Amino acid sequence: MFDSLPLPPHQWPSMQPGWVWLCGAGPGDPGLLTIHALNALRQADVIVYDALVQECILDWAPQAEKVYAGKRGGKPSALQRDISLSLVELARAGKRVLRLKGGDPFVFGRGGEEAQTLVQHRVPVRIIPGITAGIGGLAYAGIPATHRGVNQSVTFVTGHDQSGNVSSPNWKALAEGSQLLVIYMGMKHAAQISAALIENGRSADEPCAVVCNATMPRQQVIETTLGTMAADIEASGLEPPALLCIGRNVLMRQVLDWQGQMGGEAVRDMDPLNMDAVAAVA
């Protein structure tokens, strides 16, 4: 599989027995996997994978044992400590271990906790970043994370804390200082999140998008506003995993919905009242 790659096969990193490679699988579309991740898949003896990793990605590792360790809200899930210690046990048994996580392991993926446990137990670890959903998912929805003349910053926020309740960042600071908010795992708490932001000064009319199953063939996107987002989510019947995107960048989808255009949809006319919100669009 490496014949056409920039480096000859012997120059790609070699996974050694007793090592754990902590790897991001990207937001879903297997084409967004990195070459380093493919290299790891082809060498692993055992793959410990999360709920958001697609089965077709695992098919690239026919030689490996697959161990499911996914965690989904509201469903029976493995404890994080047990997952981390199982990686230690597999490595100590001399296995080449690939810990495969959706998105990027260090962006709301608890990869830091797992890497910390491995280091504490003197298990060597290699980190392979992945495309996080907050970047790749928005791109597949036709929403730039940054756009000149619209925003110079983007803030990633988790929608719930470790107990499963709505997260408690400084909503006042986020409402006042964050031009674009991208909220992971926030669908369940959309009403509380919207209320907190509006209470702290964000407009109820601010453009928002909900991106479900980002980058996958079943991806669905709701365009809404901060004030109606929770009701629109409920009416849609959509289920997680989903991203909430709050900010004027959402308006760019009116001209950059490239997947819709590939399916034959016409480019929409920009709302004249919102043209100033998407400066530099020509």
List the helices and strands and how they pair.
Blueprint: E1 20-24, H1 35-43, E2 46-49, H2 55-58, E3 65-68, H3 80-92, E4 97-101, H4 111-120, E5 125-128, H5 133-140, E6 155-158, H6 171-177, E7 181-184, H7 190-199, E8 207-212, E9 220-225, H8 229-236, E10 242-246, H9 253-256, H10 258-262
Helix pairs in contact: 3-4, 6-7
Task: Tell me briefly what this model is.
The protein contains 10 helices and 10 strands. It has 282 residues and is an alpha/beta fold.
Account of the protein in words:
28% of the residues lie in helices and 17% in strands. The protein folds into two domains: 9-131, Tetrapyrrole methylase, N-terminal domain (Cobalt-precorrin-4 Transmethylase, domain 1, 3-Layer(aba) Sandwich); 134-278, 2-Layer Sandwich (Methyltransferase, Cobalt-precorrin-4 Transmethylase, Domain 2), CATH 3.30.950. By secondary structure, it is an alpha/beta fold. It starts with 19 loop residues before the first strand and ends in a 20-residue tail after the last helix. It is globular. The mean pLDDT is 90. Helix 2 links the parallel strand 2 and strand 3. Strands 3-2-4-1-5 form a five-stranded parallel sheet, with helices on both faces. Strands 6-7-10-8-9 form a five-stranded mixed sheet, sandwiched between helices.
Number of strands: 10
> What radius of gyration results from the CA coordinates?
20 Å
The CATH topology of the largest domain comes to Methyltransferase, Cobalt-precorrin-4 Transmethylase, Domain 2
Biggest sheet: strand arrangement: 3-2-4-1-5
Report the uncertain regions: none
Give me the secondary-structure category: alpha/beta
> Strand-residue fraction?
15-25%
CATH level-4 homologous superfamily of the largest domain = Tetrapyrrole methylase, C-terminal domain
Strand-and-helix sequence, N→C? EHEHEHEHEHEHEHEEHEHH
Shape summary: globular
Q: Strand count, sense and closure of the main sheet?
A: 5 strands, parallel
Query: End-to-end distance, in Å?
Result: 42 Å
CATH architecture of the largest domain: 2-Layer Sandwich
Please give the domain count: 2
- Give me the oligomer status: single chain
CATH class assignment of the largest domain: Alpha Beta
Helix count equals 10
